[in-house]
Write a structure and sequence with these properties.
twelve-stranded mixed β-sheet, mainly beta, binds manganese (II) ion, 2 domains
Length: 260
């Protein structure tokens, strides 16, 4: 199941299911490349409704340098335990949005990441039981303001600015995600990152155990599991797509308020 939140034409916030076009009945109803959104006995073209962030996290717990090839491109070592930092709720942005980035910055970069969405309040979860607390998976762009990230310890300006975490478009349950699912970034249609999630240094169960050793996770909280190699700068008006095989494709554009 792929859960989606959206605003319908009447302005109501709905929770629906994003159905693919591989079933015959759905093919008949499908109008666009993204299938249909089903809510009750109604269906909607995803292009014709406002897709909302699929959950409302109280925090996004991010993991740095969790792919060895990305650590290497920053001349950094893979840490001996997960490197953690936070993105607060102001960072959330939705599929289909144009996100405004901080003014006056030269280098703001995309980072494609698998987002693990938590399904229940939890603390002290053993890795062996981690899947019990996972609602599903989403695509996340860990937008990073390198100008400031490289000048500060705790990456507040670098990682926690408004709109720094586009997420979505769905929460896909675990049966949709293979252990070696492909993860890809395209900017204006050009492939920039292409890897697979089995290259993570610390696995999803290990991350759940480590993070819940220190903090309570709430339903809708997200663990951002790190990015593979190939990160790079964004320019005015760029469109970013982050696709995780089996989950879906997150698409958003960016605007820099001080650029033309
Ligand atoms: Mn990241």
């Amino acid at each position: 199941m792929r859960r989606v939140r959206f605003r319908d034409a009447a302005g109501n916030v709905r929770g629906g299911r994003w159905t693919t076009v591989d079933g015959e009945e759905v093919v008949t109803a499908a109008a666009g490349p993204y299938g249909r959104i089903a809510f009750g006995d109604e269906t909607f073209d995803p292009e014709e409704v406002d897709i909302l962030a699929p959950c409302e996290p109280t925090k996004i717990v991010c993991v740095g340098r969790n792919y060895a090839d990305h650590a290497a491109e920053h001349d950094a070592e893979v840490p001996d335990r997960p490197l953690l930092f936070l993105k607060p709720p102001n960072t959330v942005a939705s599929h289909g949005s144009t996100v405004t980035l901080p003014a006056g910055k030269e280098r703001v970069e995309y980072e494609a990441e698998l987002g693990v969405v938590i399904g229940e309040q939890c603390r002290h979860v053993d890795a062996a039981e981690a899947e019990d607390v996972v609602a599903g998976y989403t695509c996340l762009n860990d937008l990073s303001n390198r100008d400031d990230q490289e000048r500060e310890q705790n990456w507040v300006r670098g990682k926690a600015f408004d709109n720094a975490a586009p997420i979505g478009p769905v929460i896909a349950t675990s049966e949709h995600l293979d252990d070696d699912a492909a993860i890809e970034t395209r900017v204006n249609g050009e492939t920039k990152q292409s890897s697979s999630i089995d290259k993570m240094v610390f696995s999803v169960p290990e991350l759940v155990e480590e993070i819940t050793t220190y903090m309570t996770l709430e339903p809708g909280d997200i663990i951002a599991t790190g990015t593979p190699e190939g990160v790079g700068s964004l320019d005015q008006g760029d469109t970013v797509e982050i696709e995780i095989d089996g989950v879906g494709t997150l698409r958003h554009s960016v605007t820099f308020p001080d650029r033309r």
